[in-house]
């Protein structure tokens, strides 16, 4: 098992990630509201920035957190289960980016419906999946990691 300093770093990182969840969801809800008004260049930019921020967040979970878990010698935790949710989000993101590119190319419709319709629908799906993923992390994965990180302190 790792040392107390490694476990402290894990707890700090989990707290930081949980705070980021709240900020990301708040931003996502704001964008969802903007999409109700219709799409424009500014909203597209907000979506792109939001997706980039979610990807940065996922990178920290998949790399920094994973490295700390390994450093702590926590072998009982399945990091792949944590990362699986990121793959699902990436699939939805690919479609959102596809729609954004159509919009940027000046197209108004795709498959008989407006780009705005598809983008709203896809972004809502992304946001719902993100909320579910964050809930899974905060109520299942993170407590599981914390359970192991307190072993040395008991």
User: How are the strands ordered across the major sheet?
Assistant: 1-2
Count of helical stretches? 4
Q: Summarize model confidence as the mean pLDDT.
A: 92
Main sheet: strands, sense, barrel:
2 strands, antiparallel
What would you call the shape?
elongated
Helix and strand sequence: HHHEEH
What can you see in these coordinates?
The chain has helices at 4-36, 41-71, 79-104, 115-149, and strands spanning 109-110, 113-114. The protein is 81% helix and 3% strand. The chain is elongated. Helix 1 (4-36) runs antiparallel to helix 2 (41-71), helix 1 packs antiparallel against helix 4 and helix 2 packs antiparallel against helix 3. The chain is mostly helical and 154 residues long. It has a two-stranded antiparallel sheet. The longest helix has 35 residues, at 115-149. It is built from 4 helices and 2 strands; from the N terminus they run αααββα.
Could you outline the blueprint of secondary structure elements for this entry?
Blueprint: H1 4-36, H2 41-71, H3 79-104, E1 109-110, E2 113-114, H4 115-149
Antiparallel strand pairs: 1-2
Helix pairs in contact: 1-2, 1-4, 2-3, 3-4
């Amino acid at each position: 098992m790792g040392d107390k300093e490694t476990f402290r770093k894990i707890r700090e990182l989990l707290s930081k990630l949980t705070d980021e969840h709240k900020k990301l969801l708040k931003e996502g809800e704001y964008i969802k509201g903007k999409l109700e008004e219709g799409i424009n260049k500014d909203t597209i930019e907000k979506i792109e920035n939001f997706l980039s921020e979610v990807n940065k967040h996922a990178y920290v979970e998949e790399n920094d957190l994973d490295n700390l878990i390994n450093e702590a010698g926590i072998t009982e935790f399945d990091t792949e289960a944590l990362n699986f949710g990121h793959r699902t989000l990436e699939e939805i993101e690919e479609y959102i980016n596809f729609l954004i590119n159509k919009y940027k190319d000046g197209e108004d419709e795709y498959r008989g419906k407006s780009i705005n319709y598809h983008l709203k629908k896809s972004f809502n799906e992304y946001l719902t999946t993100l909320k579910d993923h964050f809930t899974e992390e905060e109520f299942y994965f993170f407590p599981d990691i914390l359970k192991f990180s307190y072993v040395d302190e008991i």
